Amino acid sequence: MKILMYHYVRESMPHLPFFRYLSFDNFKKQLDYFEKNFGLVSFGEFCRLKTEPKFINMLKNKILLTFDDGLKEHFTLVYPELLKRGALGIFFMPSLVLEQEKALCVH
């Protein structure tokens, strides 16, 4: 299994040419490519690993998607797209944001 990590997936923002992000359209193109050439790990497949660790061998060519920082676009853009495709995304949410009630210093 290959694991890919994403941060910023957003609608195109031509007014911010130096801000690094992956446009949502390009994200969907990447998903199309991954589905066609590798396959995306589903929730059921991921859960099966807990009871059947050797099942990982069946997923050796598939891709597991992860998303860092719990950004708004992960919920409004990425999550619905993954649902449509039956794909799993693992979203890592920083708890310090809630504790300190301010954005991470990386944003």
Automatic annotation (TrEMBL):
Superkingdom: Bacteria
Per its UniProt record, what InterPro entries does this chain match?
Answer: Glyco_hydro/deAcase_b/a-brl, Polysacch_Deacetylase
GO terms, biological process? carbohydrate metabolic process
Q: What is this protein called?
A: Polysaccharide deacetylase
Natural source organism = Campylobacter upsaliensis
